[in-house]
Amino acid sequence: MTERRMRIVASGDYLHTMGRETPEAMGFGAYAAASDRLDLDFLPAGPQTAAVPGAGMAGADTLLMLGQYLRRPDIESAAATLALVARAGVGVDKIDIEACTDNGVLLFNAPDALTEGTAAGALALMFAVSRQLVAMDRLTREGRWDDRAAHRGREMYGKTIGIVGPGRIGGELIRLVAPFRMRALAYSPRLTPARAAEKGAEAVPLDTLMRESDFVVVCCPLTEETRGLLGGREIALLKPTAFLVNVGRGPVIDQDALVEALAARRFAGAGLDVFSTQPVTADDPITRLDNVVLCPHAVCDTYELRRDVLATTVKDLLAIADGGLPHAMVNPGVVDTPRFRGKRDALVARMRRPG
Ligand code: GLV
To answer: CA nearest 72: which of 97, 47, 92, 91?
Structure first.
């Protein structure tokens, strides 16, 4: 029976973050429902700073990845059988994509399943920072009712939002803020005016976006092109009343420059879900600022989103088992390589064998 099922191992950060929850409560129902074809095992618990060990993937057809690293030596050591890496999320910056390709491993992710949840998370951070919700909560608990004037909020109505990296998430965020009658600006290096207009935004140079936006929202992935995109010079362009939100990746912003500007109150505040180094430690200077709202890379992590992401990976894996392809391939070029084809064809044949 096991022989005819796809052998999948899930990265150790699943068990690490599962706590007392069951896999079903964490959204693994779709795997349970497909257990006649998909055989899922969890690798031993480990934090997101760890890499998936090659030995843990030995003999597996598929790695299901949450947020650990995936490095070349581990890919190589498992490459005899490993044909697929399903990234249960969107970012692939912790995965050695080239090593996947070199070893005939198809990497795919689930961007569509994250779009709405992450855009809503960005909106939550926009509200939290502009209405100073965390400070207001603290004042109320401490009985400092009369200090509330020092934390007066700012409106979103009629303001300008600037999206850095207007992909799926940025586009959805523009849709979400439409009732606030916001003007939307967008920047990415190759964004055309027509493409921006399709998303309801105006394509502008990065400096213009930084200068004119009341809410700058970073949604872009981490690539060599986006690393350090917002440095001290760009941050200095922000209006004193502007807010900066980051739901993309921490290293897109120079965090030292950001902390310095926030400490000097050169702009109004930041809502951050991602950081240059994760996890953020309690002694990090960013934790001492009172004009930031911080989230542990979890603002989009809802039960519904996890369920939808995992259901998407199941759909994709079953499609592959039936000879098809997943929705969102990161290294599609690998599909036509003999190494991938050999493993995929053997897997499909094995899964089709009459029992
Ligand atoms: C979340 O940050 C993801 O990349 O899936």
So the answer is: 97
